[in-house]
Amino acid sequence: ADAKKKIRIGPNRGENITSEVADILESHSRINPDDFDLSRVDYDTDVLVIGGGGGGAGAALLARENRAKVIIATKLRIGDSNSMMSQGGIQASVNPNDSPAIHYLDVLGGGHFDNKPDLVRTLVIDAPLVIKWLEELGVMFDKNPDGNMVTMLGGGCSRKRMHSARDYTGAAIMRVLRDEVKNHPEDIQVIEFSPAIELLMDEGGQVAGAILYNLETEEYIIVRAKSTIIATGGFGRLHIKEFATTNHYGATADGLVLGYKVGANLLYMDSVQYHPTGAVYPEQILG
């Protein structure tokens, strides 16, 4: 079978999308709307964050800093994510010979100028602030004897700007974020083993929460929220073209499907990043 197929429905209709993802996007919902009484709400909150990895935990903490009440709904446990497994680092322009403008050009070049400029601009401007924020929370980035952070060259970089915590950067960051979330139970409630299966929409066509499914009790949970953030990661665990993967078990396109079903346009769905340090081929050498 081909690696890509033209999707037949939704905002990306007619575009070539990775076949495994296209099949899920075209699938029917397994729930019957008539089975739910949406006037009965189990949780009511300011912000619902779907996903408990680095992005989700970080979003919840920043929402709390802005005085919002938050619920994190995660398919597995808080912290179970690809974020925990990352061994590289985070790039941010903090050195005297670097700047967000130089970082911006590096990112555009690395993306073969197919990037969204506004998103890249936000990335490079916020990156130094995020490094400072993470350090203040307790992430122990590598430092020189003089106390300044160690920075290294990363792929596509013209300056040293990659910040790491030895070779377990993701775990170091995720442990701090997870513990910080748990330090604020009065503002951030975590609902584990409860993936979101459908987004709720209000009469104006805006997202107003989600329906969760508790994997342990097999019960549905209705969460109403003023704002909803999807932070469920990618789709590497779908084993694209039957390739082996070290992606976390949660990376199965859940958030992409949720957003697509309510009209969100998906970007760059014809592309998959393949990082070849974890492949074994042919299979016979596994023994």
Topology:
Elements: E1 4-6, E2 16-18, H1 19-25, E3 43-50, H2 54-65, E4 70-73, H3 82-85, E5 90-91, H4 100-110, H5 117-137, E6 162-163, H6 169-182, E7 188-191, E8 196-201, E9 207-213, E10 220-230, H7 254-261
Parallel strand pairs: 3-4, 3-10, 4-7
Antiparallel strand pairs: 1-2, 5-6, 8-9, 9-10
Please give the order of strands in the largest beta sheet.
7-4-3-10-9-8
Strand portion: 15-25%
Radius of gyration from the CA trace? 20 Å
What is the average of the pLDDT values?
93
Structural account:
27% of the residues lie in helices and 17% in strands. The protein is an alpha/beta fold. It has a domain at 88-167. Helix 4 (100-110) crosses helix 5. The chain is globular. The chain starts with a strand and ends in a 26-residue tail after the last helix. The mean pLDDT is 93.
